[in-house]
Design brief:
Elements lengths: L17 E3 L11 E5 L2 E5 L8 E7 L5 E8 L20 E5 L2 E8 L3 E7 L10 E4 L4 E8 L5 E7 L1 H4 L4 E8 L4 E2 L7 E5 L11 E5 L2 E8 L6 E7 L7 E6 L12 E5 L5 E8 L5 E11 L2 E4 L14 E3 L28 E2 L8 E4 L2 E5 L1 E3 L12 E4 L5 E8 L7 E8 L2 E10 L2 E11 L4 E10 L4 E9 L3 E7 L6 E8 L11 E9 L6 E10 L3
Parallel strand pairs: 27-37
Antiparallel strand pairs: 1-23, 2-3, 3-4, 4-5, 6-7, 7-8, 8-9, 10-11, 11-12, 12-13, 12-14, 15-16, 16-17, 17-18, 19-20, 20-21, 21-22, 24-28, 25-26, 26-38, 28-37, 29-34, 29-38, 30-31, 30-37, 31-32, 32-33, 34-35, 35-36
């Protein structure tokens, strides 16, 4: 495959001074962003995938690339195995006095903080700001007098209530919180008019404290803004962005950023199901000290999302870009698009000779593929695509299985299995509910030779189907088509990637991937 002909799957920049939404058709859930000079940085939830809390960079709010992760691994041994729906929930990023701060809520453990002087470099090890289950969606804020605060929401599943926002002073620039009732407390109860209010972001403008927070639920909800002359309230409320007559449901949690030229913009996500929570960019302006987000044709103060709009004025034109997706495994480290299904261990992989070696890990009797920690996965980059992977099988051992996976409600795995020196193709489908799972296995025939080409096709964000080839040119359909559906209660979209596992006793081998390439669907 010609590496020079491979293109990225979703480009928001239209090349004519406009962009289209979403700017990222990728599952960057719960985005938060900050501008430092003429650089924009965005982070997102990563839940139980590792490395954790992706960090993206842009010069114009439209063209983004992933540059780092805030945490190389989860700070708890419990994440040495997959824990779907747990882990790093909605984080927040801020910059103050030469230092970048990221607050990260672990829904079962507490709120942690990492810092860095250089966002491209190594971040500090996380430490607790608040050790308590159920505190979520934290956001730091520095007042005019230098006092540091944090606003947060609550997860009913862990603490017994929701729809409330809380503000706490933070002592010693992140050493911990000042205990209520000294200087903090509940500042807003949304049960009456803003149910399920969450994801708060705290700002100050023209003497007003503003809390931007979505309400009404992830898929059917809207954007609410609260304002007050006092940080502890009382707060007025106003809905400033809703779905209206558009196809953008939600629209959910996000971040207000400005440009050096003084424009205001709002980043938020939309939950589209299988692809997860994709990122939109909305224009924003102020009327009577209230923000209006999107377009407001009827001038009622509540905007609707835009589909195509002029790009932000950042004083220059920057190259068209998007996060990485395809990989030819030429580097010394894994591409930043890749994450593991749990905290990685030494010996899971190696790079060299133009290949990625995935060393098969023991799969215990009765263990599902989706419960393996060494799954190497990445997000969908578009609603429709195909992946072609060139796999080398010459270092496999008896008991090994190696191949592609689609991980969601249906964990659909197309694997080459070796037994008694012979190789065959096997489709393993795991259908998962909140508290149950079932597996089926179908043998699809012999695999001859040491190289096989496997292809996954995703159509209209609805169906996953498979093909194989022995020469990389002539492909034929194999296996059965499955539904592309996000995993229940995982709050993430369908992932795709590579799996290497070993069943039974005996020595584990490895599978080699020459490339893993996204292309437009044929």
């Amino acid at each position: 495959m010609d590496q020079n002909k491979v293109k990225k799957m979703w480009i928001a920049d239209q090349g004519d001074g406009t962009y289209k939404n979403p700017i990222l058709y990728t599952d960057y859930s719960d985005p938060d962003a900050v501008r430092v000079g003429d650089d924009f940085f965005m982070i997102a939830s990563s839940f139980s995938n590792v490395p954790s809390v992706p960090l993206l960079h842009s010069k114009d709010l439209v063209n983004w690339e992933i540059i780092n992760y805030v945490m190389e691994r989860m700070p708890f041994e419990s994440f040495d195995v997959p824990r779907y729906g747990c882990g790093a929930w909605a984080p927040a990023i801020r910059y103050h006095d030469g230092l970048y701060y990221v607050f990260i809520p672990f829904v079962d453990e507490g709120i942690m903080m990492c810092t860095a002087k250089d966002p491209w470099g190594k971040w500090s090890e996380p430490h607790f700001i608040k050790q308590n289950a159920g505190w979520i969606d934290p956001c730091p804020f520095w007042d005019d007098d230098g006092t540091m605060y944090m606003v947060n929401g609550f997860a009913k599943s862990r603490i017994g209530f929701k729809s409330a926002l809380y503000v706490s002073p933070v002592r010693d620039e992140g050493a911990g919180l000042t205990a209520f009732p000294d200087e903090g407390g509940f500042v807003y109860d949304g049960h009456a008019t803003q149910p399920t209010i969450e994801g708060p972001k705290l700002y100050k403008r023209n003497g007003y404290y503003y809390i931007f927070a979505p309400a009404g639920g992830v898929k059917p909800g809207w954007q609410t803004v609260l304002r007050s002359k006092k940080i502890l309230g009382p707060y007025e409320e106003k809905i400033v962005l809703h779905q209206g007559n558009t196809q953008v449901n939600g629209p959910h949690q996000g971040a207000w950023v400005d440009t050096p030229s003084g424009e205001d913009w709002f980043l938020h996500f939309q939950d589209v199901g299988s692809a997860g929570r994709i990122v939109h960019l909305q224009p924003m302006h102020w009327v009577d000290d209230w923000p209006v987000i999107g377009v407001n044709e009827d001038e009622n103060g509540c905007g609707e999302p835009v589909t195509v709009y002029r790009k932000p004025d950042v004083g220059a034109v920057y190259p068209v870009n998007a996060p990485e997706d395809s990989d030819f495994f030429q580097g010394k480290t894994l591409g930043l698009q890749w994450q593991w299904n749990a905290n990685p261990k030494d010996g899971w992989y190696a790079l060299g000779d133009g290949n990625l070696r995935l060393y098969a890990q023991k799969q215990q009797a009765g263990q599902l593929v989706s419960d393996m920690g060494n799954l190497l996965v990445q997000k969908w980059p578009a609603p429709q695509f195909m992946i072609t992977a060139c796999l080398h099988l010459d270092e496999m051992k008896d008991g090994d299985s190696f191949g592609l996976l689609s991980q969601g409600k249906y964990c659909d795995n197309l694997l080459v299995r070796q037994e008694n020196g012979a190789r065959s193709l096997q489709q393993r489908i795991e259908k998962k509910g909140k508290k149950w799972a079932e597996e089926s296995r179908t043998d699809l025939g012999a695999v001859e030779g040491d190289v096989v080409y496997l292809r996954m096709k995703v159509r209209n964000a609805e169906k996953v189907s498979w093909e194989m080839s022995s020469d990389g040119e002539s492909f034929h359909a194999v296996g059965q088509e499955t539904e592309a559906a996000a995993m229940p209660s995982g709050w993430v979209g369908v992932k795709v990637g590579l799996a290497a596992l070993h069943e039974g006793e005996g020595e584990c081998g490895c599978g080699k991937a020459e490339y893993f390439v996204f292309q437009e669907l044929e």
